[in-house]
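User: Show me an example of a complex going from sequences to structure tokens.

Assistant: Sure. Here are the input components:
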Amino acid sequence: MIRKLVRSRFLFVVPSLIFLAIFVLFPIIDIFRMSFYQWDLLTPPMFVGFENFRMMLDDKWFWNSILVSLKLLVVSVPLTFFVPLGLALALYKETTSSKILRALFYWPYMMPAIAGTTMWKWILSYDLGILNYIMKTLGFKPVAWLLKPTPALVAVSLVRLWGLTGLLMMMFITGLQNISSEYYEAAMIDGANKWQIFWHVTFPLLKNTNVLVLTTSIAHLFRDFAVIYALTGGGPGYSTMVTPLYIYNSAFTQFRIGYAYAMSVVFLLISLVITVFSIRAREAR
Amino acid sequence: MKKIKLIDVVKWTFLIVMLIFYMLPIYYAVISSFKSINEIYSYPPTLFPKKPTLQGYVEAIRGQDLLTYLKNTLFVAVVATVFTVITTVMAGYGLAKGEFFGRIFLNRLVVLTLFVSAQVIMVPLFVIIRRLGLINNLWGLILPAVYTPTATFTAIQYMKEIPNELLESAKIDGANEWQIFWGIVWPLSKPLVAALTIFSFTWRWNDFVLPLLVVNRRSLYTLQLALAVIQGEYGGIPWNTILAFSTLTIIPTLIIFLLFQRFFMRGIMAGGLKY
């Protein structure tokens, strides 16, 4: 028996499998099970049936958190698509200058989200921030970036764009480098100009990369926690309170653990849908 | 004179504007970290410190226990990375080259776990860590991070490229599975091991969600957790200290990135998602 396990190489998988079971599979099963309980961590959990889900239907702040995520997506997804695409088109050739610039644009993605966000907070500060100073110098009114709902959403979107660009730009660069130069040559012989080549040759050939970038960006934006926690804490009011932050607050500041589990069920299912699209795009490349 | 093309003008204008947007926060935070308290709170803001001072750094290191946080972060990052690299390379090999029942199913499972990040399973993750008695324990930051979907997925893809003939011929020569793994597979996996080490270390260094869930005792804070917490405290840590703290924590990521740039630029497609 043991010999067979050794020969089939199953034993190599076992250590990882143990960690996978304890810290991924168990939590997932636990989400579904505990979503039917009321629990405050101190007293024993109490079975309440679908009560948590009924509560969720009536909880306007929960639906608000999904709405906030959707608002952020509407602003962020086009930004996190076209800016990295533009940078990739400008930098995909293997020259020294483009390699250096790529590294600079990639750096924010590499750095800790909290440190990066802290730097942005300093830029965006209402009375001390350099951004408002620049705007005043140029004759605009200063904006209370983190103190008013709409500017706060814009600020979150900008910081997300800043942190995510490196990854998405590199996806586009890989996609662009995989396009065979024969396509361009053929188009050039046919007399196409650069703009036509981009729209009729490059862009259609990037189809799978486009889907990959979009799903990656949606997945990241949807589950983002650190940036919003550090930048706005979900505020002002509930204006940037996204679902993971709302779940966190319900669980760890209000100790409504069972309710947080029920919301996690919905959040998990949404993440699953996004991932399925993302996996398809990845496999289609 | 060389003719300047319109497209180049557009391209470089775009790049310069973008470069300002991406670098300004870093530049301004770093130079502000060298300002004195008086200067940092004075108006109008200066683009370069009038009298550069290390006041913020001294305060960040002495006043904020930065060295304790650094020690905690390094401990977690190094130990978790060792665990992750060894178990992941082994699992990648087993999942790509194994001949056991359920191998295909487990491969699918790994792909599916790509969607499970700590943010998604925050609450049950906290509950299981609590049940294991690892709250306010640095091992509570290490063990949950050992299995990483992205890393495992990358390892499987890598191992698929190792030719079966190589493993077969070693077997015919009388090597056992253990010898094959350490004698043939591991040496062939050096690029994988390097990439996993760099990524795992960076992920743990940058991590925020897990420390936030697991640790609430100051002496166990990691750098990123401490940086987030001190900003929320009333009574005010001055901005030059906060920015000095931030600057110190981004320096290692910059060094790692510059040293191993090619790993980040190449290995990126295998794992699009951060854990």
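The lines above are the inputs; the final block is the predicted structure for all two components together. The two ends of chain B are 52 Å apart (CA to CA).
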